[in-house]
Specification:
347 residues, signal, 12 helices, single chain, alpha+beta, Lipoprotein, 25% strand, twelve-stranded mixed β-sheet, disordered N terminus
Length: 347
């Protein structure tokens, strides 16, 4: 998780490039609409403070329907569908420079907050020399399907973990954490493995995606009122992903080891349906991106399932007061706390 936090600005920049390129490469009759999105994305990169909020604006029934396999043993458990329906991810970044020009050394602070219907589940912040963490471990355990121990059940040899279970802020030295993360990844994948994509390959990927979007996507202005305007990008889902992966296959040797691209057979099973992405602009600023995932459901009459990405100023990314420092060698592996920090993929 620490890797994801530290690369938030880079990831946001890559996403912005793809969006901007897609907009600028629209067909001639759609150029004006595309340019509006292009300029709005550029303005995001000019900000020094930015927040992204991602959530599914749908109930648990709609999510279960999208997951498919209803009534079978592989169906999404109702409890987990309910959990996902209330899930929201907030990412905040503050920098001394414009985000498009920022490197890691320019960041004032970054945070990733994962919240459920009943409050914050997990929050990470990277400020100064430390990575901070807090979590509602009881709620996380319930969501993941296993109970968490109580603070009283933790042995003295792992006493540092008690603060985590109590929901208190803890902190770990970021540089030491990065070293431990690298060692953990090398141990799992081999000492010569690399899970990062170099800048040259990133540019090839962006160019490939740009070409497909320019060919497959059209943009149109939907109308405006009170300074708010909607621009809609439309394309066939199957054609888009087949086009993207067809362009990525020649680059497979440059991707991290273990990267498996879907086969032609897999892609033929993708929904052959048109999808639309709605960009909301307020006085020229990009404030929201929305796509209805229901078009990908097996049932053509599925309930709406909007995936919404909202943009605003960054929230609190300051260093929490009173955080307890945990030596990196005391971070417990195999737990949501340890796996999250060391890259195990848990919350």
């Amino acid at each position: 998780m620490i890797t994801a936090i530290r690369k938030t600005v880079t990831a946001a920049g890559c996403a912005a490039v793809v969006l901007a390129t897609a907009a600028a490469c629209g067909t001639v009759q759609n150029l004006t609409a595309g340019q509006k999105v292009d300029h709005a994305v550029d303005r995001l990169g000019e900000q020094k403070s930015l927040s992204f909020q991602l959530d599914l604006d749908a109930d648990s029934d709609a999510i279960t329907e999208l997951a498919g396999d209803s009534g079978s043993d592989d169906a999404l458990p109702p409890e987990f569908a309910k959990f996902i329906s209330g899930l929201r991810v907030d990412v905040s970044v503050k920098s001394k420079k414009a985000l498009s020009d920022s490197g890691e050394k320019d960041l004032i602070g970054t945070s990733v907050k994962i919240a459920g219907a009943d409050g914050v589940l997990v929050e990470y912040r990277v400020v100064g020399d430390f990575t901070y963490y807090r979590a509602d471990m009881k709620a996380v355990g319930e969501a993941m399907g296993f109970p968490m121990p109580t603070p009283e059940e933790i042995p003295d040899s792992e006493k540092e973990f008690r603060k985590v279970l109590e929901g208190e802020w803890v902190k770990v030295d970021t540089s030491e954490l990065a070293e431990a993360t690298q060692m953990s990844e090398e141990s799992a994948k081999g000492s010569d493995s690399a899970d990062e994509i170099d800048a040259k390959t990133q540019q090839k990927i962006i160019k490939a995606v740009r070409g497909v979007i320019a060919h497959e996507v059209t943009f149109s202005a939907k109308g405006s009122s009170d300074g708010t305007e909607h621009v809609v990008a439309k394309g066939n889902f199957r054609d888009l992903i087949r086009g993207v992966f067809d362009k990525l296959r020649p680059l497979e040797g440059d991707l991290p080891p273990g990267t498996d691209l879907p086969s032609d057979k897999d892609l033929k099973e993708a929904p052959n349906k048109n999808v639309a992405v709605d960009f909301t602009l307020k006085n020229g600023d990009l404030t929201q991106v929305k796509i209805d995932l229901a078009v990908l459901a097996e049932d053509p009459k599925a309930a709406k399932l909007p995936l919404v990405l909202k943009f605003s100023k960054a929230g609190d990314v300051s260093a929490p007061a009173g955080a307890t420092e945990i030596p990196v060698d005391k971070v417990p592996s195999g737990s949501p706390f340890g796996d999250g920090l060391l890259g195990g993929g848990a919350l």
